Amino acid sequence: EVQLVESGGGLVQPGGSLRLSCAASGFTFSAYWMTWVRQAPGKGLEWVANIKQDGSEKNYVDSVKGRFTISRDNAKNSLYLQMNSLRAEDTAVYYCARDTVMALYGYYYYYMDVWGKGTTVTVSS
Amino acid sequence: DIQMTQSPSSLSASVGDRVTLTCRASQSIGSYLNWYQQKPGKAPKLLIYAASSLQSGVPSRFSGSGSGTDFTLTISSLQPEDFATYYCQQSYSILRGTFGPGTKVDIK
């Protein structure tokens, strides 16, 4: 079964750090871009960061640049999100997702077709 | 950066209704548009990719159309399990997978 399982969420004080993990199974993890998406309480989805198959390219939403670091360990089939200098506005459910690419009509289309159930991060004093 | 908008922000409909949701991009994104369904407390689920391709396992009552800046998601006959929030997402750039703010579909 294709599966993603996040862990590492919890309550942290403003300015603190947290490391999220995402364990992948049932597919060739090293063949896919991977993405973190978050959702603040009662709000919509926000794309946070993604990482290329070999870790050579990483991209971030502006609001987390310089504070969050995405990484992966293909030998362990795991994705990570190191979150530093946390703020109240980082409070959210954090999902990891698999980025699949489909070649159609000579173009390459990306979409997130496998999602974990999410892990909750609460930043509060 | 590409901005996504969705309309309406919410709608009330009855079982069996035909429902059309709209998504607009701030610049042309070709067919690089995906649709997701999310139910309360659950992870999003992919419905449509590349604007009009139905994800495997998704009922055929869901369809997507559009290109450039304007896109629609249509549910041909609303079922009880379809009451949820729907998000569009641009994948024009792998660098920025921006989501729209969502459309909540609830029971009339």
Count every helix of chain B, treating DSSP H or I runs of 4 or more residues as helices.
Answer: 0
Basic shape of chain A: globular
- Please report the two chains with the greatest interface, counting residues with C-beta closer than 8 angstroms to the partner's C-beta: A-B, 24 and 28 residues
Class computed from helices, strands and strand pairing of chain A:
mainly beta
Mean residue pLDDT of chain A: 97
How is the biggest beta sheet of chain B arranged? Answer: 6 strands, mixed
| Rg measurement of chain B, Å | 13 Å
List the uncertain runs of chain B.
Answer: none
Number of β-strand runs of chain B: 10
Kindly provide the radius of gyration of chain A, computed on alpha-carbon positions and rounded to a whole number of angstroms.
14 Å
**Strand line-up in the sheet with most strands of chain B:** 2-10-9-4-5-6
What does this protein structure show overall?
- By secondary structure, chain A is an all-beta fold.
- In chain A, the strands form 2 sheets. In chain A, strands 2, 4, 5, 6, 9, 10 and 11 form a 7-stranded mixed β-sheet that branches. In chain A, strands 1-3-8-7 form a 4-stranded antiparallel β-sheet, with no helix packed on it.
- Chain A is 0% helix and 58% strand.
- In chain A, 38% of the residues are buried.
- Chain A contains no helices and 11 strands.
- Chain A has strands at residues 3-7, 10-12, 18-25, 33-39, 45-51, 58-60, 68-73, 78-83, 92-104, 107-115, 119-123.
- Chain B has no helices and 10 strands.
- In chain B, a hairpin with a 6-residue loop joins strand 4 (33-38) and strand 5.
